[in-house]
């Protein structure tokens, strides 16, 4: 299971908070005061889907200004993921048996239930560093790198950007780019796309024959992909109260993009599953995104609203509308409601199942994450300070996602099955600044 994918879902539900700062005392030139020059932030978040994925994420970030706006920043992220994930097969009116990715064990799914593999778990450790410095009075440059490691996934990336401030620092232009190299080495290996997923040794004369058949569907032990990103942005200060941001981004991915853990059901004209095959996705993806954000400071609150449109050559088009309102209530306390609305169209090769009598397409995936989706996140944060002046806050978020009917005609028994189950999650965050 790639935690990078789950992180994207968690980010859509809520942002990680919990922060702490150590402010430098520059009046005394000692070693301890040099350490105090570092600004240190920490973050902790619990994300839990009902009957599915649970994730715990801890973030530690640090920053130091080496004078004259020469700034080094870094971050350490630790993710832990457990729970159940849909394997892509359709539910059936009978018990189903599936082989785990390792090929060494099986699990069963009850009748009329979405097939979930409920025993996966993984941990991701990510570390990155960034150096930002002025090139001239109006130009700032930034360069950095990142390393992310999971049990079966390695990601390395580098990035750079340049910003130009003009119009008395009221207008800022930014151009940035990044390159990432990812290597996946899943347990059990990389399956051959569209080959049969052997699920039950009971259909073989011996375990050895089953192992031989299962091994014949594995292409290699690992594969890789490369990602190139380019972004151009403009930030404009209009008045003392209003600031806006516009970003345009393009992304290109080449390499292994198929999910090695997902399968697709081939069903007969009566709706019963004939067999399951390993999914197949294109080995490239081109994506464009457009982002707009505005912040306005009213006398009674700060209003933040943003909109993002994304499109790619898989025909996945998405719209994201998000808003937060920061409302001070007393001298130090505040309330901050939050809403996020998301809509996504399906990839051109998405199908909840395929008919066994039809020719198998070159690309097909039953992964609901690339299907027709609607999602909403609702949240509320409350913050205040202790008597010692340390800020704290608590946030509660609710995430609800529905998968839309993709228009595929359901044969036989599939008419009584829930092929598009909803997903709901709770996010709880506690924040404290030291």
From TrEMBL:
Top-level taxonomic group: Bacteria
Name this polypeptide is given: DUF3570 domain-containing protein
Organism from which the protein derives: Psychrosphaera aquimarina
